[in-house]
Amino acid sequence: MARIDIRLNESDKEEWDEFVMDSPAIGSMSALVRQAVFAYIADDDNPDEFEMVVELMESLENAIYELERVQSKTRTDVVAESELVEIVDSIVSSYAFAQVHDVEFTSAAELPREGVDKF
Fold first, then answer.
1. 5-12 contacts: CB < 8 A, separation 24 or more?
2. Please, what is the angle between helix 29-45 and helix 47-77, to 10°?
């Protein structure tokens, strides 16, 4: 693979670096430069094709963002096994306490909580 060097001022490099960091679809500075050059050539050859490529890239960026959002939300919904065991133990203890003391309930939310840990 051939290699080229590009000279640019520091503020432009910082702007490019920030753009790469904010654009998950572009993995590196090299990818940004390649895509920009290909887009420039495509725009010169066929303006409609360039617009289609830009729209496709924007669509892909939006899809990636949405997947990351859903993934992060899914991770926060996962309950650790130890926490789940504590929840089940609490409900079972409350249920047993309610049975022994003839406490009526229609849902787990109505189960007594006070005095149950002594049970």
1. 6/33
2. 150
CA distance 104 to 21: 58
The Cα 35–Cα 32 span in angstroms is 5
Domain assignment of residue 118, yes or no: no
Tokens 């590009």 map to which residue? 6
Q: Within this chain, do residues 100 and 56 fall inside the same structural domain, yes or no?
A: no
Residue 116 lies in a domain: no
- Tell me the per-residue pLDDT of 95-111, one tens digit each, with 9 for 90 and over: 777 767 676 766 656 65
What is the reported pTM?
Answer: 0.38
Domain hosting residue 99, numbered range: 81-110
Q: Is residue 103 part of a domain?
A: yes
Count how many domains the chain has: 2
Does residue 34 surpass a pLDDT of 60? yes
